[in-house]
Specification:
alpha+beta, Muramoyl-pentapeptide Carboxypeptidase, domain 2, six-stranded mixed sheet, two-stranded antiparallel ribbon, 13% strand, binds zinc ion
């Protein structure tokens, strides 16, 4: 596949980025951000460049790569912490080694009677920026600072849970619950939920992922630093 790590902010690109993203408020918000803040507004930010990111992006479409993976892309629906559609399509893409590892985790899960339920993978940088802008300062431990970029922007983070026969299991908190209930050291949750969270963690760690301490659903590929921060809209990613 080919993917550019930076894109000119041409009007055509901007229109393409907004095509199909919700209606009214969301489009307006993103349009304002893309056309205003990101270019010349008060919080003008350039796409962060990481000199350590020397690997060429090699994004793959997770559903195509391993059809056993079940997707529940919350940001493609209003059922997310923003309460708005952020992705114009329900798609999960990740760097190839991440997809390969995830496939191995799926095999481990199946052996125990479960399957993986993917909430999010690669996330364009502009979406990280929109999330940051919309999140009150006291909750920003749960969202990435766009000035540094997110590991999701590198195609190296996966937000996921487990399902059993297609039904999402109960975990210690809902996805994107921005409270301490989401912390991995939350022992107040139901014993079964904690056990399932730890089971998923053991499989993910065994295949090369690093768990995030304050979100039970978030894992980073150990070698995330090798991949650049990207801002290609999901619908424009040409993934193998
Ligand atoms: Zn995440």
């Amino acid at each position: 596949m080919t993917v550019q790590t930076t894109r000119p902010a041409a009007p055509l690109t901007r229109r393409a980025a907004l095509r199909g993203i919700g209606a009214g408020a969301v489009g307006g918000m993103l349009a304002g951000m893309l056309g205003g803040c990101a270019v010349r507004g008060r919080s003008a930010l350039a796409l962060p460049q990481d000199p350590a990111a020397t690997a060429a992006p090699d994004l793959v479409d997770l559903a195509r790569f391993d059809p056993r993976l079940k997707l529940d892309i919350r940001y493609a629906t209003p059922a997310n912490f923003m309460g708005r559609v952020l992705y114009p399509l329900a798609r999960a893409v990740a760097q190839r080694p991440v997809a390969e590892a995830l496939s191995r985790v799926q095999t481990r899960a199946e052996a125990a009677g479960y399957g993986l339920l993917i909430f999010d993978a690669y996330r364009p940088w502009r979406i990280t920026q929109a999330m940051w802008e919309a999140t009150p300062p006291e909750k920003r431990e749960f969202v990435a600072d766009p000035a540094a970029g997110s590991r999701h922007n590198r195609g190296c983070s996966i937000d996921l849970s487990l399902h059993r026969n297609g039904a999402e299991v109960a975990m210690p908190s809902p996805y994107d619950d921005f409270t301490p209930a989401a912390y991995r050291n939350n022992t107040a949750a139901a014993a079964e939920a904690l056990a399932l969270s730890r089971l998923l963690e053991s499989w993910m760690v065994a295949e090369g992922f690093v768990p995030l301490a304050n979100e039970w659903w978030h894992y980073d590929w150990a070698e995330w630093r090798r991949y650049p921060i990207m801002d290609v809209p999901l619908e424009d990613v040409t993934a193998g």
